[in-house]
UniProtKB/TrEMBL annotation:
The lineage of its organism: Bacteria, Pseudomonadati, Pseudomonadota, Alphaproteobacteria, Rhodobacterales. Residues 67-214 form the Hedgehog/Intein (Hint) domain. Pfam families: Hint_2. This is Hedgehog/Intein (Hint) domain-containing protein. It comes from the Bacteria.
Length: 260
């Protein structure tokens, strides 16, 4: 049995696209920007779940929406801890201060943390050993992605009176002993979660923020990039749709792996 010519062409194009996504050498060629696959699960207005796959540039604005939690990270829900990969839109996630919110969006992507992209950015992870931030914080090892932020006082501000807790990138807490950088040479699945309102949730016993792009996220990007970006989110069509930040964010380091 032979495939129709049109299907053969489609298969060839798919293989060509796949090669572009997987071959680091191809990604460095002129006029071939690095692309990445992103998978999204969304809660529909009727209570159903939509699962979509996207191909978009490997730019910080996209990667930040997918690179917070590694596979196996346990998220506190009203039904108890659930691994992030097993969460479904509609699940009730416990939030800081009591109460819960339904999961309305879950994004995931796969990357190799030890591999730098064409612009030299890398996506190294941060490992928190048990009790590294206090008793049972975390209770077992937690590995956070480059976009993960903790609700804690930044290390450089410790001892400063009157400093509020700030959402701080996980990498800022690395001490080289109990909290350290890790960069596996193999593919790692990463996830992020979005609730109706920006919030802090417990993942592995630590207080992490849910996804929010930030009020200035799209300030300098083109219309085409904005269109691609909002195509990832069925529940918003502008930055205002994400609402306000629940807590202030610490100033981000200029050499963060997702900046550039």
């Amino acid at each position: 049995m032979t495939l129709p010519h049109s299907l053969q062409q489609a298969a060839a194009k798919a293989a060509e696209s796949s090669a572009l996504l997987q071959d680091p050498a191809a990604l460095r060629l002129p006029n071939k920007p690095q692309l990445r696959r992103y998978e999204v699960s969304s809660l529909l207005p009727n209570g159903g779940i939509a699962e979509t796959r996207h191909i978009a540039p490997a730019l910080p604005i996209f990667e930040d929406a997918f690179c917070a939690f590694t596979r196996g990270s346990l998220v506190e829900t009203t039904q108890g801890p659930i691994a992030v990969e097993d969460l479904l839109p509609g699940d009730e996630i416990l939030t800081q201060g009591g109460g819960s919110q339904p999961l309305i969006w879950k994004g995931s992507t796969s990357l190799v943390p030890s591999r730098s992209d064409a612009k030299g950015r890398c996506h190294r992870l941060t490992s928190f050993m048990p009790d590294s931030l206090g008793l049972q914080k975390p209770a077992s090892c937690v590995v956070a992605g480059p976009a993960a932020r903790l609700l804690r006082m930044p290390p450089q501000m410790r001892g400063t009176t009157g400093t509020p807790l700030l959402l701080t990138l996980a990498e800022e807490f690395r001490d080289g002993m109990n909290i350290f950088e890790t960069a596996p040479p193999t593919v790692v699945d990463l996830f992020h979660l979005c609730l109706p309102k920006h919030a802090v949730i417990k993942v592995g016993g630590l207080e992490f923020e849910t996804y929010h792009p930030g009020p200035e996220a799209l300030k300098l990007v083109s219309y085409a990039i904005k269109t691609l970006y909002f195509n990832l989110f069925s529940h918003v069509d502008s930055l205002s749709g994400f609402g306000p930040l629940a807590y202030a964010r610490a100033a981000e380091a200029t050499d963060s792996p997702l900046r550039g």
